């Protein structure tokens, strides 16, 4: 409410991202495309945004394609992970992400998460 009348230039990066995503979701699209949406955010804001987006998508399920170079982000937000090769990009692997809807920042230290992350990082290095 403090920023209801604020101009976009007066908002933080996280606030601008939330506003942009909310604006798109207000139209109830069948597909949401997010290309590195959190790349410019600091680590704390990024984690808050992950939780916020997961909450939004739980309330209003929408098929979402998230492009990211951040393996943690892909595993925290995705139900499936597609790994692309270097240029020309080709899909080299598709993995199910088995952590369910309740994942959050505490998932980052779960042994199963750490193991899957290590495996995905190995695949990323092999594909690049």
UniProtKB/TrEMBL annotation:
<dbReference type="Pfam" id="PF00005">
    <property type="entry name" value="ABC_tran"/>
</dbReference>
<dbReference type="GO" id="GO:0005524">
    <property type="term" value="F:ATP binding"/>
</dbReference>
<keyword id="KW-0813">Transport</keyword>
<feature type="domain" description="ABC transporter">
    <location>
        <begin position="6"/>
        <end position="38"/>
    </location>
</feature>
<dbReference type="InterPro" id="IPR050166">
    <property type="entry name" value="ABC_transporter_ATP-bind"/>
</dbReference>
<protein>
    <recommendedName>
        <fullName>ABC transporter domain-containing protein</fullName>
    </recommendedName>
</protein>
<dbReference type="InterPro" id="IPR003439">
    <property type="entry name" value="ABC_transporter-like_ATP-bd"/>
</dbReference>
<dbReference type="InterPro" id="IPR027417">
    <property type="entry name" value="P-loop_NTPase"/>
</dbReference>
<dbReference type="GO" id="GO:0016887">
    <property type="term" value="F:ATP hydrolysis activity"/>
</dbReference>
